Amino acid sequence: MNAAESSFADRLLGRVRLSGLLSLAAPLLAIVFAGVVTSIVLLISGDPPLETLGIMAEYGAQPRSIVLTLNYATTYYLAAIAVAIGFRMNLFNIGVDGQYRLAALVAAAVGGAVALPGPLHIAMIIVVAMLVGAGWASIAALLKVKRGVSEVISTIMLNAIATSLGAWLLNKERLAVEVAGSNNIGTKPIAESGQVPGMAIIPGTEAKVFGLIILAIVVGVIYHVLLNRTRFGFDLRATGRSETAAVASGVNVKRMIIVAMLLSGAAAGLIGMPQLLGSSYSYSLDFPTGLGFTGIAIALLGRNHPVGIAFGALLWAFLDTSSSILQLHEISPEIVLIMQGTIVLSVVIAYELVHRYQITAEQRRVSKELAGGASPRPEGASA
Amino acid sequence: MLQNRFGRLAATALAGGMLMGAAACGGDEPATSASPSGAASSAPAASGAKVGLAYDIGGRGDQSFNDAAAAGLDKAKTELGLAETKELEAGNGETDAAKEERLRLLAQGGFNPIIAVGFAYSGPVKKVATEFPDVKFAIVDDEAATGPNISNLVFAEHEGSFLVGAAAALKSTKNHVGFVGGVEVPLIKKFEAGFVAGAKAVKSDIKVDVKYLTQPPDFGGFADPAKGKTAAEGMFDAGADVVYHAAGGSGGGVFEAAKAANGKAIGVDSDQAKTAAEDVRDVIMTSMVKKVDVAVFDFLKGATSGAAKAGTTVYDLKAGGVDYSTTGGQVDDIKTKLDEYKQKVISGEITVPKEVS
Description:
Chain A starts with 7 loop residues before the first helix and ends in a 12-residue tail after the last helix. In chain A, strands 1-2 form a two-stranded antiparallel sheet. In chain A, helix 6 packs antiparallel against helix 11 (253-270) and helix 8 (213-229) packs across helix 9. In chain A, strand 1 and strand 2 form a beta hairpin. Chain A is built from 15 helices and 2 strands. Chain A has a domain at 75-307. Helix content of chain A is 69%, strand content 2%. Chain B folds into 2 domains: 2-155 and 292-315, Response regulator (Rossmann fold), CATH 3.40.50; 157-289 and 326-347, Response regulator (Rossmann fold), CATH 3.40.50. In chain B, 38% of the residues lie in helices and 18% in strands. Chain B is built from 12 helices and 12 strands. Chain B has helices at residues 2-6, 37-42, 65-80, 96-108, 122-131, 157-171, 186-202, 225-237, 251-260, 272-275, 292-304, 335-347; strands at 50-54, 84-88, 114-117, 137-140, 150-155, 176-183, 207-214, 242-246, 264-269, 284-290, 311-315, 322-324. In chain B, the strands form 2 sheets. In chain B, strands 2-1-3-4-5-11 form a 6-stranded parallel sheet, with helices on both faces. Chain B has a 6-stranded mixed sheet with strand order 7-6-8-9-10-12, with helices on both faces. In chain B, helix 3 (65-80) links the parallel strand 1 (50-54) and strand 2 (84-88). The longest helix of chain B is centred in the middle third of the chain and has 17 residues, at 186-202. The relative contact order of chain B is 0.15. The interface between A and B is large, with 39 and 46 residues. Chain A: GO terms for molecular function: transmembrane transporter activity. Chain A: It comes from Planobispora takensis. Chain A: Pfam families: BPD_transp_2. Chain A: It is a multi-pass membrane protein.
């Protein structure tokens, strides 16, 4: 597709790529822009911008902080991939949050209830999580295919239903057990055979990186191969680009919607696994929430590219990690939220600006060549 | 209070400290803010202790649970001459690792003692306390984290709720009262259990409506006055005339509904006839007060004089950790009866259930 014919959504979701130096210009522009806005906010709140960033960088570079950042990033990466699968074919799966919470809860309960030999136990928990995530997402997929319900609406509502269902399930009469002496309740802790040991791979600290960081990497590779190296991936991207064209070339669009939604849901089911199997071993009242929404932001930030998402997840995780040191220096930790929001906006705006520059530059070149009597070079497809 | 602790359990806590020992007098620098931690650890011998406080989400200014802890800290600052205090609060949806890191940063920064406010800190406190055996830790609302340097400050909310339940039943002319819980979690169920038991102790056939505003992990029920109002309106419409709330910030809506229905309401955590919006104070006949400030102050007093007591301290009716309030004089006529019940609970003649039967 010619860049000039692309829609804003195509550009936003990274379905149209920039070429040459421009692909470097966009992220640089975004970083500069985000830096300027953040500095202004810091100045308004009365904190010196350079010193603040210095504190964050210094703290973020400590071995323990690196481990924390990697662990957060593992979770964020899985969340963003779950969202990105939908994005690539124009499906806005806003329900990743509900899918992941329900999957983590059921998987934790099943994992706590059975005892199996090590690898089998872990595999079973992960498979259950993927099935539950996919199952919950399938409701939205079926509604879309059978009744034409927008997946945006249905997944948002399913998030609310997942909350209520989770509350109903996380009860002592059902999946939960009381934690002695605590006001918390959670599922029965998963036995050691189902726990994934951490890896002490960062020198200088005993803190361990989630073993399931490998899972995140594998998921990233599968995402890349599936989308770019298989017929299925081609069909998926084609459907995302133009449904009518896809139908004309023999793609069963309804089937694609269901499969993409199920994949997105299955990936969503994985989001809670690093935390569940690597740290908390039980789904309780204080299990982290909202990761599905973080995933949306990071998928946008990484422009749905597996490597881009990795950078996005690491950046996001670094900012989250360093927010605690800011409080110690009397700088409001909300600054981090502002930074994260600014970065996403900057990326969206910067890419849009660069795309528009590219389009006008091309048009200028074409009209020049036409005026000179030469025929314009044919455009290559950019997908 | 409820709101915070549960609030989105993503709280961050940082509290740390080195035990600077016993000398608790001296440099009274009352500012909440402290110098950067690096400087502090290199010069640990300042006069007075450096106290770290880690809140759950919300932090100081929530007019409820966290503010009660903050009040205890403020009192300690002036009366005990603390050298420095640092308050850190949690982020939304964070993991235990983030809470641990906060506590660790405080400990590394030379803060000692360190207080974690809310049960979400249970795991993190246990872990960090092992890493810093010389630092005294306290955790509010949790008994699960135990260790030689951990003090657990817990409250008998059900006992206090029992008294206001009895007060509600004594004041109800329609033999029908209500309970509005913020979020359906075990802690709030304790309030419900005590309230129902208290009401039934007075009139065994009394009708008690119970309604929870939200279910976890949606903790919005602690901060949604509109939901609180709707729930209470429903109860007043159905014939209740006294409604007790354990719903943090949503309680404001309960008071409004009581005012509109010419009914009565019962406050929670602090003496709400003094802290609620002025136009609704007259409907608050009493409040179940939970003295987090007293617990925090007591702990700091003990810790700074070198006598911090590890293990669980229960702030119950007997210890004065929970009570009913008398501001406004609306329960003066039944005070004798309430004090009778209070004595019976203290003496053990009445055992208040912690769980809803």
